[in-house]
Each structure stands twice: as C-alpha cells, then as structure tokens.
Amino acid sequence: MAITEYGQYMSIAGSPGQLANYQEYAADSYPAKEVIPYGAAVQLSADGTGVIPVKTGGSPIGIALSRGIHDYTTNADDQKYLVGQPVPVVKRGNIFVVAGGDIVNGTAVQVDADTGKFVPSAGIPFVRAVFRSNATVDTLVQIEINLP
Predict the structure, then answer these.
(1) Residue 58 region, left (φ>0) first, then alpha (ψ -120 to 50), else beta?
(2) Residues contacting 120, CB < 8 A, separation 6+
(3) C-alpha to C-alpha distance for 139 and 100, rounded to whole angstroms
(4) Which of 33, 54, 122, 143 could disulfide-link to 41, CB 3.0 to 4.6 Å?
(5) How many Å apart are CA 5 and CA 39, to the nearest integer?
(6) How far apart are CA 48 and CA 40, in angstroms?
C-alpha cells in the first residue's frame, strides 16, 4: 500500500537536514573544518580532509544531516556541527533544507553561497539535485540528490 500522506508514518519535518522519507539514503562522514549548520550544503576543505559550508566558487558534495537533537528547555544554539565533530554528509536521498526564494517542484537546485539557502537560480549549481516540493523563502523544502 502506498503512503499517500507524509505525516502518516513519519513525523513532519521540523528542521533543516532532516530526512524527508524512509527511502534509502547514502552518507559519508567527514570532520567539520568550520561550524556547519544542519541542512547546509557542504564542500571539501582546501586540504580535502574535511568539509566546510559551500563558498563562492565551491562545488557541493552533499548536505549535512541533522542529528535531530535539540535542547528545548534552554532553546540552546545546538543545530550545528562544531569544528572537529564528524559530519554525516548525505549524497543520495531526500532531505529537507531551507528555501532562499520561491521554489517550484522539479526545478534544479542551486545554493546561495552568501546565505547558505537553496535557490532555483543565481547560485552555485548543485549537480544532480532537484526540488521535490514547492516552497517560499525561509520555509523548508524537500530536495532529492543523487551524487556518486
């Protein structure tokens, strides 16, 4: 039987970097060379031994997966990986990210290097990634990536 409603078996997305469905996904782990927010597009560091958020002229290799941990009692600033922590980088699968503009389902994904948000144009191309839902600026949007 097909799952016809997102929230039927999996809770609705609450944060960037959260997996969007139960399909298989692939992730590699790298150490953070800079602070990396959950759901951020990342690129290899200059020495190739870790990851950093995508910069102008960079090439995205995946998206930082959320650990799903948050201290709601103190509303801590804990939705990120600190320098030296291992970062699971999703290279294949469906994941939620923050939209940087109006998004239409099925369009190619790009990343705004200044804001770190995902846009349909005027950004760094995210090769082999497409938006899988509609969205408006600063809301969560689902993308599907299929990198080697």
Answers:
(1) beta
(2) 101, 102, 103, 104, 107, 108, 109, 110, 131
(3) 8
(4) 54
(5) 23
(6) 18
92-135: pLDDT as tens digits: 999 999 999 999 999 999 999 999 999 999 999 999 999 999 99
Cα distances (Å, whole numbers) of residue 126 to 13, 68, 71, 86, 121: 22, 24, 32, 22, 11
Token pair 């030296």: residue: 84
Q: What is the pTM of this model?
A: 0.87
Coil vs helix vs strand at 7: helix
Q: How are the residues of the chain apportioned to helix, strand and coil, as percentages rounded to the nearest 5? A: 0, 40, 60
Q: Rounded to 5 degrees, what are φ and ψ at 80?
A: -160, 165
- Give the number of other CB atoms < 10 A from CB of residue 97: 31
pLDDT digits (tens, 9 = 90+) for 28-73: 999 999 999 999 999 999 999 999 999 999 999 999 999 766 555 6
Rounded Cα distance, 38 and 68, in Å? 9
d(CA 122, CA 110): 8
